[in-house]
Amino acid sequence: MRVNRTGTHPSLSAETQAIHERRIFRRFAQRAELGVQLTTVRSRRPPEPDIRCRTVTGDYVAFELVEIVDEGLKRGMADQLEIHAALEQEWAKRPRHKTRSRYSHAMPAVTFSASARRASRLAAVPSIIDLLLAQDPEPVGAVEFARSGKLKPVSRLFVHQGGFSGPCFDVSNGGAFADPLWNQVKAKIRMPYVTVHQIELLAFYDLQSPRPGSIGLPPILEGIMSKFEQSAVRRVWVYDATRDEVLLRLNRPGSGG
């Protein structure tokens, strides 16, 4: 998959992407107490860094942004949305007298095997709906089934009953995701930027939370610093937007504060 400039949501338009970046940056600037005049935050185009802003002292600063997210997670979310839509479409095809009273307050949760391919997951959708319609009128809990044929990629099917406007399908692709923080930071600090302003890099988590131990490991930091010395970027920030927390500030050697 081609990664867009910031490594964030590849399906967003350039303007929507810019709005997303400005929203994240304003939250970060307030949390980090940077003294940024929030009304001066503007998106820029390459080869400039992503954002230019003015501080309360009158100085301009340029920020490059990169979202830290595993590529597998991005692909997985796109697949989840596609399968979710397929489940709703398949449900809508079935005769209303069979579906009207079933799952009206339920959330059927479908979990696929992490190794299952996208095509096999989509092919399982009609069989999943058949299986749900074969249950009791108001089923709850784990649904038993044989993992064979079209249902082979499905590892679990669970029905939650509650205050849902159902059926409200939930899809999970299973599997674990990596934390590519420092690989993405290294790639960004080596990029050539064109600006007359001081440059800082904001690496942020939004779609994905940081993995324990991924921040501040000495061997990793030493590797970053060796690349940092030749970079135009004077400071790297790591920000967790999911918890509104600044995790790390790393200054380039010799750059001051």
Structure description:
This protein is of the alpha/beta class and 257 residues long. It folds into 2 domains: 14-70 and 179-251; 72-172, no CATH class. Helices cover 32% and strands 22% of the residues. The chain is built from 7 helices and 10 strands. The protein has helices at residues 14-32, 71-93, 96-99, 118-123, 125-133, 181-189, 218-228; strands at residues 42-43, 51-54, 60-67, 106-112, 141-142, 154-161, 170-172, 198-205, 233-240, 245-251. The protein has a 6-stranded mixed beta sheet with strand order 1-2-3-8-9-10. Strand 8, helix 7 and strand 9 form a beta-alpha-beta unit. It is elongated. The relative contact order is 0.16.
Question: What's the short story on this structure?
Answer:
Helix content is 32%, strand content 22%. Strand 2 and strand 3 form a beta hairpin.
Which regions have little confidence, pLDDT < 50, spanning 5+ residues?
1-8
Overall geometric form: elongated
- Termini separation comes to 38 Å
Query: What is the typical, i.e. mean, pLDDT?
Result: 82
Number of helices: 7
Strand content: 15-25%
**Strand sequence of the main sheet, in spatial order?**
1-2-3-8-9-10
Count of the domains = 2
Radius of gyration: 23 Å
Main sheet attributes: strand count, strand direction, barrel closure:
6 strands, mixed
Q: Structural class, from helix and strand content? A: alpha/beta
**N to C succession of SSEs:** HEEEHHEHHEEEHEHEE
By DSSP, the count of extended strands is: 10
User: What's the helical proportion of residues?
Assistant: 25-40%
